[in-house]
Amino acid sequence: MKIIGARLILAELVTLQRSDDAGLVAQLTHQLRALISSGRVRSGAALPSSRQLAAELDVSRNTVTHAYEQLAAEGYLHVAARRRPVVTSDIEDRFAKAAPEPKRDAARKPLLSPWASRLKDVEWPLSYQAAFRPLRPGLADAREFPHEIWARCLRRSALRRRFNEQTVINRPSLREALRDYLEVNRGVRAEADQILILPTAQAALTLIAATAIVPGDMVWTEDPGYPGAAAAFRATGAEVVGIRLDEWGMTRRRGARAPKLIFTTPSHQHPTGRVMPVARRTELLAAAAPGKSWIVEDDYDGEFHYDSRPMPALQGLDRERRVLYVGTFAKAMTADIRIGYLVVPPALATTMEIAQRHLGLIASVQVQEALSDFMADGHFLAHVRRMRRIYRSRRDHLAAALARQLGDVLAAEVPPGGMQLIARFKDGATDGEAVTRLVAAGVEVRALSSLALERPRDFGLLLGFAAWRENEIGAAVRIMTNCLTGKRAARV
Predict the structure, then answer these.
(1) For 316-339, b where at least 16 C-beta lie within 10 A, e where not — what string?
(2) Which of 9, 125, 192, 449 is 20 to 30 A distant from 270 in Cα terms?
(3) Strands 218-223, 239-246: parallel, antiparallel or unpaired by DSSP?
């Protein structure tokens, strides 16, 4: 390689493209930097003056001056008034000490923290769910949301100026609105300062894991159940144990030592939709030793019960104050609201709010205040009541379509509430291959076995109905019929 010394003609080494989007200054800076770092322009070499190089390259003097100034700021050049720029004296030593290119295998295996490494233990979120297609479960129908009313609430919130309250991350107005709503509609007993406002329900689980669990602690979760909970708890080093379900939901492990934490969805078990009766709830409370164990109650879609009034929350039955209650607005409103909440026992309120700040799990102040207005003006309850009627109709439509088109193949379990249902194969077949075919055909279903914490024992298809209109549900069931039976379904 030819090394360029003090006498050099940079114009022969630099090629500028005047149509390049990067611009002349950026191009010249990049090319001069490359010449110096590669050793083609050695240390101590004097570069042409800005006037001379500008003339040789047929560019403005400012272009060259800006490039020289940038390289001087980066330490490549020494620039002094009325002197030609000089390449820094130790430039070769600096690049000679650069770390060698990592081996290919080493580059593929970055060093991760134990927390990040444990995230891979649970397949969550599912990688194939990139598109929003029928019958993807767990989604609200954003098309039915009163966007204009919500926009007015957001605008009103944005116009408020409360500079003296910028440090209040959990807005009192929303805390109070939530307290009143949860007390009347879910039987939750709490003061406003026990409610933390978070970006998502998953953020609430992350906060609980960070504050209540140390590596080696035992955690019970439902099996099958919500994989995001297992992911949050395993990432902290907990020993997560899956607890089998019966017809009433999570069972109690008799004779087993009390775990540090129990995660449950008693009002509408995810994913089966089973409702835990009061007697079972009492047993579950008894399994949590006061002062040593915590219960996390996830009431992710508690607003949607169709056949009767929802059962009061487990938190309201707890006299020992050991239940942490998790909720979200993503199901009742739309997913992009990005607001969840956590009701904590009084003994944890201060500590968890400090942890909330440290972890940065802070929801937008403007969205919080807009939501408090949305609730105070009655829009939230009106929307929930309307969606209950719509979702119930869609549930019944999906169940009827499955019975009509796929009754010989699938047995649908119609839940009393929620936003999804399970359909099991009547011949006892597993679900993996069928889900692969259905997803490829454009029907976004989930395998029940994919929600197993340990070895899968339950198989079936998890089908969402809330986000999809009746014509979309009908079209999806026709595709399912073709995929699962090879027959062309009739249009009804």
Answers:
(1) bbbeebbbbbbbbbbbbbbbebbb
(2) 192
(3) parallel
Look at strands 294-298 and 461-464 and give their pairing. Answer: unpaired
Within 13 Å, how many C-alpha atoms sit on residue 84's CB side?
14
**pLDDT for the residue numbered 195:** 98
Hey, what's the torsion of the CAs at 228, 233, 238, 240, to 10 degrees?
A: -40
Q: Which two tokens stand for residue 57?
A: 């390259």
What's the rounded Cα separation, in Å, for the pair 122 and 235?
A: 9
Cα separation, 307 vs 296, whole angstroms: 26
What residues form DSSP beta bridges with 295? 262, 323
Cross-strand bridge partners of residue 69: none
Question: Among 300, 298, 294, 343, which residue's Cα sits nearest to residue 320?
Answer: 294
| 420 and 448 Cβ atoms separated by less than 8 Å | no
Residues of the chain scoring pLDDT < 50: 1-7, 130
CB 57 within 8 A of CB 18: no
Q: Give the pairing of strands 77-78 and 86-87.
A: antiparallel
Of 168, 123, 173, nearest to 153 (Cα)?
173
Q: What is residue 352's three-state secondary structure?
A: helix
CA dihedral 129, 135, 136, 137 (to 10 degrees): -150
Helix (H) or strand (E) holding 330: none
CA distance 375 to 453: 37
Cα–Cα dist 378/160, whole Å = 21
Residue 391's Cα: distance from chain center in Å?
24
CB distance 338 to 144 below 8 Å: no
Q: Would you state the structure tokens that stand for residue 408, as one six-digit string?
A: 């010989």
Tokens of 68: 């020289």
Q: At what angle do helices 227-235 and 201-212 cross, to 10 degrees?
A: 30
What strand order describes the sheet that includes 410-413?
410-413, 420-425, 461-464, 446-447
At 1 the pLDDT is 42
> What does the pLDDT read at residue 302?
84
The residue written with tokens 């090629």 in the block is: 15
Do 89 and 43 form a contact (C-beta atoms < 8 A)? yes
Q: What angle do CA 64, 69, 75 make, to 5 degrees?
A: 130
Signed CA dihedral, 122, 255, 321, 416: sign only: positive
What is the rounded CA–CA span in Å between residue 445 and residue 435? 6
Paired sense of beta strands 323-328 and 77-78, if any? unpaired
Cis peptide before 135 (omega within 30 of 0): yes
pLDDT of 7 reads: 45
